[in-house]
């Protein structure tokens, strides 16, 4: 019974990781102003994936964490390709041109590439840092999450913002760096809120 519950928990964590990454990438298509900070809306949700990745790592080990990262990347690529395909298919004119779908869900390729590239690189780095700290710190699980997220979140944000927005008309370097700093600040706050989830998961046996 305990083994079955453990399997269900592993599946739930992996599915939740993929879903949150998808929600983050879709919502990142909208630029918002929150507490006078300029950011993509995905910033609100994406930091949770770093903690979820740490939960998967703690429960099922490094290989499972890496697998889920690449699984999420593949699902997100498939999602955006699906949006693109549907947006270029001829519409039923009895309903109308339905241009809104393409405008909202067929985003700039730079945002798509930036989101997925940043996720794979930053989350992989997060995995390596967590694995290193895991062998140094046996009990302070919150510290593992804090250190790995503190390093990987700025890397993720910088890659995403530069790939997606560098050189875009109307976004000069000062605006770009302001966006990066504000995004990092918001992501770290959300990451800190989710920090102690790590104590709800049992350690893997590696």
Work out the number of β strands. Answer: 2
Overall pLDDT confidence = 85
What structural class is derived from the secondary structure elements?
Answer: mainly alpha
CA gyration radius, whole angstroms: 18 Å
| Distance, first to last CA | 21 Å
User: How many helices?
Assistant: 7
The main pleated sheet reads as: 2 strands, antiparallel
Low-confidence stretches: none
Describe the structure.
- With 206 residues, the chain is mainly α.
- 71% of the residues lie in helices and 4% in strands.
- The protein has 7 helices and 2 strands.
- Strands 1-2 form a two-stranded antiparallel sheet.
- A hairpin with a 2-residue loop joins β1 and β2 (37-40).
- The longest helix has 27 residues, at 62-88.
- The chain is globular.
- The mean pLDDT is 85.
In short:
71% of the residues lie in helices and 4% in strands.
Characteristic key phrases:
single chain; 206 residues; mainly alpha; two-stranded antiparallel ribbon; 4% strand
List the helices and strands and how they pair.
Elements: H1 2-27, E1 31-34, E2 37-40, H2 47-60, H3 62-88, H4 99-105, H5 109-134, H6 141-165, H7 173-193
Antiparallel strand pairs: 1-2
Helix pairs in contact: 1-2, 1-3, 2-3, 2-5, 2-6, 2-7, 3-4, 3-5, 5-6, 6-7
